[in-house]
Amino acid sequence: MILYRPVGTKELELIKQSNYREFPPRLPEQPIFYPVLNERYATEIASVWNVKYNDDHRGYVTKFEVDDEYCGQFAVHQVGDAYHKELWVPAEQLKEFNAHILGEIQVISEFS
Fold it and tell me: Which CATH number fits domain 2-111: 1.10.150, 3.20.170, 2.40.50, 3.30.1760?
């Protein structure tokens, strides 16, 4: 399954430290890791929300692939418009989720 994750500069730095192989652990106030199912939605978040709310006013869209069979255990949630779809991964399962990423996490867009 191809997934996208809008991130800010701080999260992107942690992804770089993993050689683009994993997402960092969630903070205590972040119980869900939610990659999104399409580039359009990820671009919307990165270009509007991340640019507006991050200290450096930058946002990035990452793209990555995860084993389809593994992803099947997680619920897809529509959280707005028809294309606002997210995969909800409990934070405590992120380490295992990262182990199922195929290849590297790619940065495909940057906004400021």
Answer: 3.20.170
Nearest-Å Rg of the Cα atoms of the chain is 13
Any bridge partners for residue 24, and if so which?
none
Backbone angles phi, psi at 20, to 5 degrees: 60, 35
Q: What is the pLDDT of residues 35-52, one digit of tens each?
A: 999 999 999 999 999 999
Convert the pLDDT of each residue in 5-24 to its tens digit. 999 999 999 999 999 999 99
SS (H, E, C) the chain: CEEEEEECHHHHHHHHHCCCCCCCCCCCCCCEECCECCHHHHHHHHHHHHHHHCCCCCEEEEEEEECHHHHCCCCEEECCCCCCEEECEEHHHHHHHHHCEEEEEEEEEEEC
pTM above 0.85, yes or no: yes
